[in-house]
Design brief:
The protein is α/β, with parallel strands linked by helices. Helices cover 30% and strands 20% of the residues. It has 2 domains: 219 residues, Rossmann fold (3-Layer(aba) Sandwich), CATH 3.40.50.720; 205 residues, FAD/NAD(P)-binding domain, CATH 3.50.50. The mean pLDDT is 96. Bound molecules: NADP nicotinamide-adenine-dinucleotide phosphate (NAP). NADP nicotinamide-adenine-dinucleotide phosphate binds next to helix 7.
Amino acid sequence: MRHFAVVGSGPAGFYTAEALEKAYGEKARIDILDRYPVPYGLIRFGVAPDHQSLKAVSKRYDKVAESAGVDFIGNVCVGLDVSVAELLEHYDAVILAIGAPNDRKLGIPGEDLPGVIGSAQFVGWYNGHPDFADLDPPLDGTHAAVIGAGNVALDCARILSKTRHEFEGSDIVGHALEALEKSAIRTVTILGRRGPHQIAMTPKELGELGHLEESVPVVDMADFPPVEADAPLEPGLRKSVTLLRGFADFEPNKAKTMVFDFFARPVAIEGDGKAERIIVEKTELDEKGAARGTGETYEVPATLVVTAIGYSTPPMEGVAYDERGTKFLNENGRIADRLYAVGWARRGPTGTIGTNRPDGYEVADQHVATIPAGSAGDRPGAEGLKRLLAERGVMPTDYDDWRKIEQTEVANARAGSPREKFVRHAEWLQAIGR
Ligand code: NAP
């Protein structure tokens, strides 16, 4: 019997477990470990609560978790409760699928002022991540800004702009819904350091902005090149740029605006003990298409600043780390003998949920290819791991425990919402009688 430990139960972890199960069938036991008693990682804590159709992919992961060769081992923090080296002693291969949960830093003065929040924190707050349940973002000012021109920036700006009514059917957590309903924010400025042709926003996500109840998207046509210049763009990007251009025809006839400010690079955040304004430098594109400052600066008022400029994978003891890429150092997913990385921990924080699927299959193929025919694994797998955890007083949870938590969350849902998530680790454990 082969024993595999997949660390992380987000999309990359589940696709890897699925691939290993297909490759090995009954000859393998696959354990998906997570530091929380709840699975799905990015799907639960990252994907926007008003994008329930994207979250529905967890149904596919349920099938994987329920299959005979796969177990979910929750409430175990690799790196704290057990090391990667110890996992390698217990398992034939260890696959790190821990994603990229940390915010990248801007590296500008004032970034640490109260009111400046990374998107991982802000998204975690409205999605019920236990680390950010007490974030309490300042929503009492009239102006907010989101830095970055990607889909996460759009998620954050949209969530700041929606009405309570527009959250119907979502699973935004109660504390965020209440706070957002009382929010005084009327203007959300999205700062892109390059131009409309360099955005990383996709058409579906941009299209939603045209239908918000109380907010109107605003663009400045001076930021756009002549429309003929859109022709050579890749079709998805061309569609996004066309949608952006269309915003110029919108009447600013609603209570809120979402202002797209391009060629705008934040150089400092200022305020009296908290964020009040961003100093922005006007940019232009250099020969390589990067943002180059023009020296011209102006102020954008913002008492809430969300930085949505990408994420990083934290280093782990004993695992080679790529400082520049802020991910694990790997070659096609292989970090070292029997140790692999998949998903954002392998590639960096880009791509859709489905982009993670081939990673898992590639690792399964690599591993299958390196095992000599007829050799039998003799490592203890979960049995040994659980013995070790018990010695350390760590009490793992299983998939049935998650089911109980899920049932309680569904039962607690407010009208029209699929669930009311618990937002504290202790509440998860309480739901399973611990
Ligand atoms: P992203 O797509 O890489 O966008 C990051 C943005 O931040 C870029 O516009 C980048 O500009 C900007 N940026 C980086 N460093 C900066 C700095 N120092 N100053 C100012 N701007 C800076 O990352 P993301 O938005 O975090 O999304 C991560 C992945 O998840 C993406 O693949 C995204 O499509 C996906 N996602 C998908 C959905 C969905 O499908 N609904 C939702 C959320 C996320 P430059 O281009 O100039 O570097």
